[in-house]
Amino acid sequence: MSILVDKDTKVIVQGFTGKEGTFHAGQCIDYGTQIVGGVTPNKGGQVHLGKPVFNTVQEAVAATGATVSMIFVPPAFVGDAVMEAADAGIDLAVIITEGAPVRDMMMAKAYAVKNNMKTIGPNCPGVITAEECKIGIMPGMVFKKGNVGLISKSGTLTYEGANQVCNVGYGITTAVGIGGDPIIGLSYIQLLTMFEADPQTEAIVMIGEIGGDLEIQAAEFIKDNVSKPVVAFIAGQTAPKGKRMGHAGAIISGSAGTAAEKMAALEAAGVAVVKSPAEIGKKVKEVLSK
Amino acid sequence: MNIHEYQAKEIFAKYGVPVPKGKVAFSVEEAVENAKELGGKIWVVKAQIHAGGRGLGGGVKLAKSIDEVRELATEILGMTLVTHQTGPEGKLVQKIYIEEGADIADELYLGVVLDRAKEMPVIMASTEGGMEIEKVASQTPEKIVKVAVDPTIGFQGFHGRKLAFGLGLPKEQVGKFIKFAAALYKVYMENDASLIEINPLVKTGAGDFIALDGKMGFDDSALGRHPDIEAMRDLSEEDPAEREAGEFGLSYVKLDGNVGCMVNGAGLAMGTMDTINYVGGTPANFLDVGGTASAETVAKGFEIILRDPNVKSIFVNIFGGIVRCDRIANGILEATKLVDVHVPVVVRLDGTNAPEAAQILKNANIKNVITATDLGDGAQKAVAAAKGE
Predict the structure, then answer these.
(1) What are phi and psi of B304, to 5 degrees?
(2) Domain B1-20+103-237, CATH among 3.30.479.30, 3.90.550.10, 3.30.470.20, 3.40.50.720
(3) Cα A210 from Cα A239, distance rounded (Å)
(4) Which of A107, B119, B150, B184 has the fewest beta carbons closer than 10 A?
(5) Which of A101, A107, A156 sits opposite B221 (nearest CB)?
(6) Is A130 a member of any domain?
(7) How near does any CA of chain B get to the CA of A154, in Å?
(8) Same structural domain for residues A18 and A105?
(9) Which pLDDT tens digit goes with each residue over A176-210?
(10) B73, β-bridge pairs
């Protein structure tokens, strides 16, 4: 078992024939993901990476039965692409593109919710169910099959966390990079709910960062709703106030959004909080050997 | 991206948000000319820098004659203004705004910002104008009225009524205030703003509302479709090292410690700083080399980090996903030829092609380069090297 995606998930790629789309779709196919086609307007009818290309998501869904779309279109067109996927009845859109305008994502997210389409990202590494299905840009070989679910705002910390979990002898069920933008799709609470319900997942690693209050909400949720052990790290304990640290969302404003505040809330909810990402593996081993 | 008060007011005026008459000046003579042109008997001379708290710092002053405008302009232009937002080093004032005096009966606050939890813009209003809104929020939160606006329906009359009646405005002012708030929401949405603050928003003796101050920030990702706003960028307000890094696709923020950091990914970069701190050191910077690190960008990264005289060692921490580690290793070799790297460099490369990368570094046998096996090991070695151990 796993959450969101598995070896039977049928995936199309929006922005299939572009440079990024081509490279990463190829990597996903090599990993074993069922990429069943792609969408690039005006290139319908072509064959790319051995898969059919369609002009619209609607045509792609009708012809392939895809339920998930991986989106690589350029930032200015991401909002449109997400709404097209929602309109076509896609269940889950994984938005990899970095630099999408916040206003566009605000509109696209509202439309996705209205159409019951889940979204992941934007500006994220994607989702991977270890050794079954990779939808995104993460290095597949880091994720060995196992019993730990992983949720992270940061791309490279997703890899770092998964690598440590595997190095201490465990593995990953599903890992989800939710992205660090101000407006994101699936977040901690929905994913914690899914991992709690997934029989294969025995522990959850949650990686957050400064800015916003999603981690605080997650802490409140964990207290009453998550029985599985959770290990958490919050990046940015040493970040100065008022400075944007790479991600558009990673900024401490006023007294809100600090790492200290988030770590305290998580600890109060019974989460095993580590002060350095270098301690994630060790801590997972500790909570799973109890 | 942030802009100056005078620029924000230009945008406000375009959308029918009332602002006092005013003109920006780059010299004392220009300031005097502006005051004469504006006419009247009272003028306000305002320093234009990208930071709040200008009044308390002595950057906003009232002149009651043209001679006084000249005196104040001479005093403020060229001064280094220190406020709670500039840091102790302050900011050099290179332009001033000459504005007509306003008849102030009452001071309010009005702002628009993204509510990330609700995923929509929220308009905040308060009767406590002139105060820092963070202070009002923590001390008397009941004095702030917040109204979230669903962007798919836009600003409606009821949003305005919730604000106006929430503030307890007398009925003859309700309509005017709603019109003001509606115009400000339009400014926010149509310009892809990330923040608008009017503090204070003044109620005049005649019962009109006017934006006495104006602060705007924009979503950097949307600047491409607003060339007029991008043209308002004031490079002299930005940190030169951060700006230069940005030109090379690097994201850099200077800190006060002595262990330089070069990392791929914003989260891992912060996590690396935290780990340096955790093992007893202090990070000198945040530096994300991004997803396409090349020899050139790595060299630029070294150059920027080494410009900080506090740096005693550098920790290169790369988890290669898309970025192949062998490429980074070659980048480090190239970089050491381009830049004089005179401090110890601890290198941790993990992920795609890590074994090949280790071999490349081993074969090159560069002095000053120390390899590390993982994040914790690397942080410890870098901190020890900074301490001269």
Answers:
(1) -65, -45
(2) 3.30.470.20
(3) 8
(4) B150
(5) A101
(6) no
(7) 5
(8) yes
(9) 999 989 999 999 999 999 999 999 999 999 999 99
(10) none
